[in-house]
C-alpha cells in the first residue's frame, strides 16, 4: 500500500509540474504576443543572446534542439520565421557543411532586450517563492 501511495504522490507532483509549465508558457505567450513573439521564439532569442562570445554570439541549430524542447522540424520552422522577421540570420558552418549557425541580428538583440523584463516578470510571478499557491 505504501508503494501505491508513493506512486500516487509522485504522479500528482509530476502533473503539478506539467500544469505550472503549461500555465507559465501561456502567460509568457500572452505577455510577448504584442511584440510578435511567443514563448518558444523568446527561448531561441534568449539562448542566442547569451551565446558564448568566442563563438561570435552564434549557436549551431543542432545545439538548440535540446535546449528549446522542440522537434528539429518545429525548431527549423521557428528559426525560418525569426529569420523572415529579421531577428536572426543563418549561415552554413564552414567546418561541417551540413551544420547551420544561427545568430541574432541587431534587431533581434534589441527586441530581446525590450521583452526580457516582460518574460522575467512572468517567471517571477508564476515561479516566485512568494506565491500563495506554491
Structure explained in plain terms:
There is one protein chain. The protein has 134 residues and is mainly α. Helices cover 63% and strands 10% of the residues. Strand 2 (88-92) and strand 3 form a beta hairpin.
Give a brief rundown of this model.
With 134 residues, the protein is mainly alpha-helical. It contains 5 helices and 3 strands.
For the largest beta-sheet, the strand count, sense and barrel status come to: 3 strands, antiparallel
What are the low-pLDDT stretches, counting only 5+ consecutive residues below 50?
A: none
Strand order of the largest sheet: 1-3-2
Please report the number of helical segments: 5
The strand count comes to 3
Q: What's the SSE pattern?
A: HHEHHEEH
List the SSEs and their pairings.
Layout (H helix, E strand, L loop, with lengths): L1 H31 L6 H11 L8 E3 H8 L3 H13 L3 E5 L7 E5 L1 H22 L7
Antiparallel strand pairs: 1-3, 2-3
Amino acid at each position: 500500500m505504501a508503494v501505491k501511495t508513493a506512486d500516487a504522490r509522485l504522479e500528482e507532483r509530476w502533473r503539478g509540474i506539467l500544469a505550472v509549465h503549461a500555465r507559465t508558457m501561456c502567460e509568457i505567450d500572452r505577455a510577448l504576443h504584442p511584440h510578435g513573439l511567443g514563448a518558444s521564439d523568446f527561448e531561441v532569442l534568449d539562448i542566442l543572446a547569451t551565446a558564448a562570445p568566442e563563438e561570435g554570439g552564434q549557436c549551431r541549430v543542432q545545439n538548440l534542439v535540446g535546449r528549446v524542447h522542440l522537434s528539429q522540424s518545429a525548431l527549423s520552422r521557428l528559426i525560418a520565421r525569426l529569420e523572415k522577421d529579421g531577428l536572426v540570420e543563418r549561415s552554413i558552418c564552414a567546418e561541417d557543411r551540413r551544420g547551420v549557425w544561427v545568430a541574432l541580428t541587431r534587431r533581434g538583440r534589441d527586441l530581446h532586450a525590450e521583452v526580457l523584463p516582460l518574460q522575467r516578470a512572468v517567471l517571477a510571478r508564476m515561479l516566485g517563492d512568494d506565491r500563495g499557491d506554491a
